[in-house]
Design brief:
It is a single chain. With 135 residues, this protein is mainly α. It has a two-stranded parallel sheet. The longest helix is centred in the middle third of the chain and has 46 residues. The radius of gyration is 26 Å and the shape is elongated. The mean pLDDT is 80.
């Protein structure tokens, strides 16, 4: 369950399967797609809907179409909020690691990469004051 194994963790989806119960594998493609999207980390915005040609597609299709857009918007906003919360938590962890490394006077203990040379030299100057020769 790492980020690499969940490439769709920032995606929302909704599946409307179209099929016919007169065939053996009713809505098999829609069911498979729904299952795989969840396995890849996507958020289900709407429960899988399976419309049956044998009984009338419109019984399932029309109500699904009426709400799919609002369900997708709601799901995407939820993903965006969760992503922002995770980013803030990561920032807090990074700041804690930086403070801990600086406290122990060892920039080498820092496990997150510094963003620029300026940040590196600023951190280094805090922990290793250069000696100044007076002539």
């Amino acid at each position: 369950e790492t980020a690499e194994s969940k490439p769709f963790q920032l995606c929302a989806f909704a599946v409307l399967g179209l099929g016919d119960t007169n065939y053996d594998q009713f809505c098999a493609t829609g069911k498979l797609l729904d299952k795989k999207m969840v396995e890849l980390g996507a958020s289900r915005a709407k429960k899988l809907a399976c419309a049956d040609e044998a009984t009338g597609l419109e019984e399932v299709v029309e109500p699904w179409l009426e709400t799919v857009l609002s369900d997708m918007v709601r799901a995407c906003l939820s993903i965006d909020k969760n992503s922002a919360d995770r980013a803030e938590e990561q920032k807090d962890r990074d700041e804690f690691q930086l403070a801990k490394a600086l406290e122990s006077h060892s920039v080498q203990e820092l496990q997150v990469p510094l963003q620029s040379d300026d940040e590196f030299y600023a951190a280094k100057n805090v922990t290793e004051q250069p000696s100044i020769a007076i002539e």
